[in-house]
């Protein structure tokens, strides 16, 4: 194997995408971060009621971090927390009209971004890359 670190390379790619998405969302007039966009799309695509714990699992983060993210989203008018009809201790996270409009823009833009990211990559290369990436995801469990 080469002398580079796959962990550092993947982190660099992740940071690069995060920075570009943040700037792109500002250009599009969206008051969201890449993390907010993932949560918005998760809620937008969900057919069920979603609580904070569901989002924590989806994003893979802890309760305090997710609480802070959702507090920011609520302050920015992207979500509301409503009482669950099934469990009075639970709050359901719902999108506002503002975030529903943003979701439509985010969906269209995601397709454009995906096209850009795979441009100049052949179908064969992409299949190999996907296969390797899936192996890396499985190997994470061994750490």
Keywords for this entry:
7% strand; mainly alpha; single chain; 2 strands; 143 residues
What is the mean predicted local confidence, pLDDT?
94
Given helix and strand content, the structural type is mainly alpha
Q: Which H/E pattern describes the elements?
A: HHHHEEHH
Query: For the report, how would you describe the main beta sheet?
Result: 2 strands, antiparallel
Instruction: Report the end-to-end length measured between terminal Cα atoms.
Output: 19 Å
Number of strands: 2
What would you call the shape?
A: globular
Helical percentage: 55-70%
Radius of gyration: 18 Å
Q: Please report the number of helical segments.
A: 6
Spans where pLDDT lies below 50 across 5 or more residues:
none
Major beta sheet, strand line-up: 1-2
Tell me the β content.
5-15%
What does this structure look like?
This protein is mainly alpha-helical and 143 residues long. The protein is globular and about 55 Å long. The protein has a two-stranded antiparallel ribbon with strand order 1-2. It contains six helices and two strands, in the order ααααββαα. Strand 1 (79-83) and strand 2 form a beta hairpin. The model has no long low-confidence stretch (mean pLDDT 94).
């Amino acid at each position: 194997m080469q002398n580079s670190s796959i962990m550092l390379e993947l982190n660099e790619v992740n940071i690069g995408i995060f920075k570009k998405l943040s700037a792109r969302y500002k250009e599009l007039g969206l008051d969201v971060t890449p993390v907010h966009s993932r949560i918005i799309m998760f809620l937008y695509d969900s057919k069920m009621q979603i609580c904070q714990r569901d989002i924590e699992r989806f994003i893979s983060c802890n309760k305090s971090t997710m609480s802070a993210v959702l507090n920011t989203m609520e302050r920015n008018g992207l979500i509301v927390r409503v009482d669950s009809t099934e469990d009075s201790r639970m709050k359901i996270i719902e999108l506002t009209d503002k975030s529903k409009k943003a979701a439509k823009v985010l969906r269209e833009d995601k397709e454009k971004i995906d096209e850009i990211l795979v441009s100049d990559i052949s179908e064969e290369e992409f299949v190999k890359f996907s296969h390797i990436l899936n192996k890396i995801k499985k190997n994470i469990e061994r750490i």
